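Propose amino acids for all 158 sites.
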C-alpha cells in the first residue's frame, strides 16, 4: 500500500472520529481531535471563531442544546499535500430537540451542510483538525419542477 493511500485513509479515519465524537456529545473526545495550536471554525450562520477556547466553547454550546444529532457524510473527497490534508464533504444532518412530555422522541429535522475540514499531521504522525468551515445548502425542492434553471428559485449548491 502506498504512503499516499495510507495518509488518505488515516485522514478519513480522523474525519470520521471527529463526527463520531460530536454525535456522542463527547466534548473531551472532540477536543482531542483538534490541534492545540491556533484553530478556527465557522458553523453555518456563525461568525469565524478562532482559538481553542472559542472553538471548544462553540461545540460545548452545540452539544448542550442538541438532544440528538447524526451525520451521514456524502461526497467525501480527501487530498493530502505534505503535512496538510483537505477534506470536503456534504453533512447530511438529522437532529432533534428535547423529548416530548410522554417520553417519545422529539421532532427530528434534517439539513444539509457542505463542509471543508483542514487537518495537519502531528509530530506523532496522526492527523488533527486545524480548521472547519460549514455552509448551509439552500434548496427549494417544491419549486424545482415548476421553474426552469436560473428563474430565481433557490437551487442546490454543490
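Proposal:
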Amino acid at each position: 500500500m502506498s504512503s499516499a493511500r495510507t495518509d488518505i485513509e488515516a485522514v478519513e479515519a480522523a474525519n470520521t472520529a471527529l463526527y463520531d465524537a460530536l454525535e456522542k456529545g463527547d466534548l473531551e473526545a472532540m477536543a482531542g481531535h483538534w490541534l492545540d495550536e491556533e484553530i478556527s471554525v465557522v458553523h453555518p450562520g456563525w461568525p469565524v471563531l478562532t482559538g481553542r477556547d472559542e472553538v471548544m466553547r462553540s461545540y460545548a454550546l452545540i452539544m448542550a442544546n442538541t438532544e440528538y444529532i447524526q451525520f451521514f457524510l456524502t461526497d467525501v473527497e480527501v487530498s493530502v499535500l505534505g503535512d496538510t490534508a483537505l477534506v470536503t464533504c456534504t453533512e447530511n444532518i438529522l437532529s432533534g430537540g428535547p423529548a416530548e412530555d410522554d417520553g417519545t422522541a422529539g421532532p427530528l429535522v434534517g439539513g444539509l451542510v457542505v463542509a471543508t475540514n483542514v487537518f495537519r499531521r502531528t509530530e506523532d504522525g496522526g492527523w488533527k483538525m486545524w480548521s472547519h468551515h460549514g455552509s448551509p445548502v439552500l434548496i427549494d425542492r417544491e419549486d424545482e419542477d415548476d421553474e426552469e434553471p436560473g428563474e430565481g428559485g433557490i437551487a442546490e449548491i454543490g
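Residues 92 and 121 are 27 Å apart (CA to CA). The chain has four helices and six strands.
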